[in-house]
Amino acid sequence: MKMPFKKRSIGRRTLLRYSVAGGAAASFAAALGGCGETQVVTETKIQEVVKEVPVQKVVTKIVKEEVPVEIEKVVTKTVKEVVVEVQEKVVTKVVEKVVEVEKPKPQALTLVFSTWWPLEMVGHGVYTQKYIDVYQAKYPHVTIEYRNWPFGEYHTKLLTQAAAGTAPDVFAYSGIFFPKFVKAGGAYPIDELVRTDAEFEIEDFVEQSLRLSVVDGRLWGIPHIGNAWAVLYNQQVLEEAGVEDINEMDAAGRWNWETHLEALQKITTRDDAGKAERIGMNDPGLNVLGIHSWAWQNGGNLLNQPGLGEFVLNEPAGVAAVEWAADLVRNHQVAASPADAFGNSYAELNNGRFGLIYGWAIYSRVKGFPVDVAHPPSGPAAQTTVFHPNTLGIAAKTKFPEESWNLIALQLSKQGDLDQTKIMGVISRRKSNLLKMAEVVKGQFGIGHPEVVAQVIENGRTFDVTEFQQEIGNAITPVLQQIREGDDAQTKLDELKPVVDDILAPRRG
């Protein structure tokens, strides 16, 4: 089943739908009140210009004239009125004055910006350094102090700093953990900053991308360095294994769970000892993030919708999806397990040890290899996938909200959004860039079906994200791995339900 490429329109009413519930933000007009120094008077120029302007003015004059009239030889005098129109030329003196008013000299300041990648990193670091340089050239009175910590400790460190009032002014944050940071009081609401920035065009963003930056009806961040879960496949491996091109199957309505399994079986080869020499795919996503797509394809969910206050993966549709994914490893042995000792998924795809992978569509990682992109297979209920951007936000206690917003707006401008594809090989979040992004993906990274890129963005869904995402993940992922190793899915998920529901109890009041 081929999913249509649906266009969505996001207007400022959409943003208002997100933001009205939280009330209007306070005015930021005074935010820079402390940023001025001694007033300096620039050169004042006064120029006087005299212009002669012809004006047509009609003036009516009445001229009285005595005319003799003879009546019965008695001469009398009568008065005859003659109307004469006269044009007068009027010279008007026009004075033009050009005055340069006094301007405040911007105060030098330091803006702290943090992410979890170093500036030396190919892709992410190059992009970030570029926009730090562009920002400082545009605002020379601002110095950017860049900080980064490894992903594993990054979010906890920012929570600690937010509590102490020392969090970076501007920060990147993983979308799955961002609600917790907001609930902890770490973020600055940006509704008003967005509303008053006429050049930013918030309506240009794909609506799903904004979802993870909205908490309690207010906007707290802007989607940044997003990606979508897709199938990346090695065309050469599929051809050698006698597997039809996935996009051709998809176009014919034959790319589904059954044909997916058949393809993996043809690709997989093992030696006499049973060790995989080449295997169909990487780990099928038996973790709190990866299981979403399988559940959705089967009509299930991880948490109840829309409240996200109850665990529902133990319901029939969810159980069947977990069993399907686990069987690819434990029964069919066509997906990689830890015992197979394969390396990085993208590297193994490029070198031909994997036929396909489920992963983020990061095209810079497959450049120069015979790799193409496709939708995940259709499940019994739907063909859908995960769309997951991170976010850029502002610290709640920043002293420089407007300067911080300017840094975000620059990175996530239309050009900044497109540069993320060009430099990092990740997806765009702006609707106006989707066609250009497809051109870049095809021309720069050699992807044969760039239209799939835009489609997975338009039709993708976001994770079931709450402020308890990390705690839920810690509870769910080990259980899914136990099922992969052979434990009964229904039993383990039933045991898991009260554990997750207790974590979610505060959401239910």
Report what the structure shows.
This protein has helices at residues 12-19, 124-138, 151-164, 178-183, 191-196, 207-211, 235-240, 246-251, 257-267, 291-297, 316-330, 345-350, 401-411, 414-424, 434-445, 451-459, 469-484, 489-508; strands at 57-71, 74-88, 109-115, 142-148, 170-173, 214-215, 218-219, 221-234, 269-270, 276-281, 354-360, 371-374, 387-394. With 509 residues, it is α+β, with helices and mostly antiparallel strands. It has 18 helices and 13 strands. The radius of gyration is 34 Å and the shape is globular. The protein is 36% helix and 18% strand. It starts with 11 loop residues before the first helix and ends with a helix. Strands 3, 4, 5, 8, 9, 10, 11, 12 and 13 form a nine-stranded mixed beta sheet that branches. A two-stranded antiparallel sheet has the order 1-2. Helix 2 (124-138) packs across helix 13 (401-411).
Q: Which ranges are low-confidence, i.e. pLDDT below 50, for 5 or more consecutive residues?
A: 1-53, 69-76
Fraction of residues in helix: 25-40%
Total helical elements: 18
CATH architecture of the largest domain: 3-Layer(aba) Sandwich
Radius of gyration: 34 Å
Query: At the fourth CATH level, what is the homologous superfamily of the largest domain?
Result: Periplasmic binding protein-like II
Report the average pLDDT across residues: 85
Largest sheet: 9 strands, mixed
Number of strands: 13
Q: How much β-strand is present in the residues? A: 15-25%
Tell me, what is the CATH class of the largest domain? Alpha Beta
Subunit arrangement of the protein: single chain
CATH topology of the largest domain: D-Maltodextrin-Binding Protein, domain 2
Structural class given helices, strands, pairing? Answer: alpha+beta
Distance between the termini: 41 Å
Number of domains: 3
> How would you sum up the global shape?
globular
